[in-house]
């Protein structure tokens, strides 16, 4: 730490994963941090998150690793299955990345942990603060998610586009003691991801392609029967899981492209405000956590704020563009139909049988990334 951030006023708009992680990283470097959050309380809808090692390296560097491990499960594997439930391939995380920590955590527990840690580092979190334009003062960090007001200030008005994907999310009780693995069931035009969470719970995310999205809201409570009907053809444990759903929310997955302009020397965007993604690489929160660390480190090291913000942009842009593109490709791969689906599943089965390390090795570029080891 250089001391360059000592007593520097920083205002962060948004108390999500990006804003709270940045608040902790900056307060630990002695900045005077205020977070403005429009919601009247720090609360999260029930849902799970997978946190991969590239995010965990930052969580550890912030001194939150032990607490995070206490509220999460270590993921052993990712199983790819077809509609019937039969295994197509298995990415064995323990075998092929034994030193890495893939965690399964309830989003609400993660946000509570980050908010408590930010407050104890001296961050002021002000609730019920809807920000329309960048506030006056020192550095402004736009961590205000997909419909970011700070992004609009930097890039002009852009309308998010519907990605033709909708996602139901639900958490169900699961006392079966199932192994901590993420399971992905791939069907034509839809897929379902599930994994257990601490406390006898199981997270479900069920994605369906849909050409029309006419609801006004972008996320709302839905009838669990709609979810059951959409996935009625799925086998294995899926019917039992879906029977257990008593409450579900549905999201229309809207996106912008990666923002053209991330910063203007005074304001800077991080997390979904800068680069919203489809959730099919499970990297949105992970990218937000990487951003938070790297932004704080650039500001700590930079000779001046505009140079530091430029450096942040140049360090992050190609990585997040690569991840967003990989998530888009997964959307296609998971939902294949007909002969393409047969060919892709056969290739996966063969790779699983003859070169299982290769399947996971394709993602080394993603999981090996170490924000903490970058020299600033
Ligand atoms: C179905 C689904 C599954 C996912 N699974 C994973 C996963 O497994 N792993 C993973 O890493 N990621 C996952 N993600 C992505 C991840 O949830 C997001 O990328 C991440 O939460 C983005 O964090 P953020 O802080 O940038 O934005 P947000 O979480 O959207 O937070 C923005 C905050 O800003 C506040 N705000 C907004 N506008 C204003 C304003 N004008 N004034 C003041 N405050 C404002 C909001 O209330 C909110 O608190 C998933 C996403 C979806 C939809």
From TrEMBL:
InterPro entries xrefs: FAD-bd, FAD-dep_Monooxygenase_BioMet, FAD/NAD-bd_sf
Cofactor needs: FAD
Membrane-crossing segments per the record: none
Signal peptide positions (record): none
Transferase among keywords: no
Pfam families the UniProt entry points to: FAD_binding_3
Keywords recorded for this protein, A-Z: FAD, Flavoprotein, Monooxygenase, Oxidoreductase
Provenance organism: Paracoccus saliphilus
FAD-binding domain sequence ranges: 9-132, 139-325
Name of the protein: FAD-dependent monooxygenase
Top-rank taxon, per record: Bacteria
Molecular function per GO: FAD binding; monooxygenase activity
């Amino acid at each position: 730490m250089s001391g360059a951030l000592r007593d520097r006023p920083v205002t962060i708009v948004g108390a999500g994963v990006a804003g709270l992680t940045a608040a902790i990283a900056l307060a630990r470097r002695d900045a005077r941090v205020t977070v403005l959050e429009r919601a009247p309380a720090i609360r999260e809808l029930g849902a799970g998150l997978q946190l991969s090692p590239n995010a965990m390296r930052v969580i550890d560097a912030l001194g939150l690793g032990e607490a995070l491990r206490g509220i999460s499960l270590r993921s052993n594997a990712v199983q790819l299955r077809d509609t019937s439930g039969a295994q197509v391939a298995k990415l064995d995380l323990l075998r092929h990345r034994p030193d890495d920590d893939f965690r399964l955590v309830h989003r609400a527990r993660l946000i509570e942990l980050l908010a408590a840690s930010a407050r104890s580092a001296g961050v002021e979190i002000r609730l019920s603060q809807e920000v329309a334009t960048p506030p006056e003062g020192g550095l402004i960090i736009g961590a205000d998610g997909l419909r970011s007001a700070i992004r609009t200030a930097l890039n002009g008005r852009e309308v998010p586009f519907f990605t033709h994907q909708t996602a139901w999310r639900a958490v169900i009780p699961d006392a079966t003691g199932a192994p901590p693995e993420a399971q992905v069931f791939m069907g034509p035009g839809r897929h379902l991801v599930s994994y257990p969470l601490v406390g006898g719970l199981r997270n479900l995310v069920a994605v369906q392609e849909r050409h029309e999205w006419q609801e006004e809201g972008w996320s709302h409570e839905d009838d669990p029967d709609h979810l059951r009907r959409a996935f009625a053809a799925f086998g294995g444990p899926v019917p039992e899981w879906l029977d257990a759903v008593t409450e579900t929310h549905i999201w229309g997955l809207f996106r912008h492209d990666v923002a053209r302009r991330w910063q203007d020397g005074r304001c800077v965007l991080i997390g979904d405000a800068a680069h919203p993604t489809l959730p099919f690489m499970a990297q949105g929160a992970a990218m937000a956590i990487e951003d938070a660390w790297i932004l704080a480190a650039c500001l700590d090291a930079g000779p001046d704020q505009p140079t530091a913000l430029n450096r942040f942009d140049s360090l992050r842009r190609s990585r997040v563009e690569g991840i967003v593109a990989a998530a888009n490709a997964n959307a296609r791969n998971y939902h294949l139909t007909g002969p393409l689906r047969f060919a892709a599943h056969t290739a996966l089965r063969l790779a699983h049988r003859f070169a299982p390390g290769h399947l996971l090795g394709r993602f080394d570029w993603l999981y090996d990334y170490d924000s903490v080891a970058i020299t600033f």
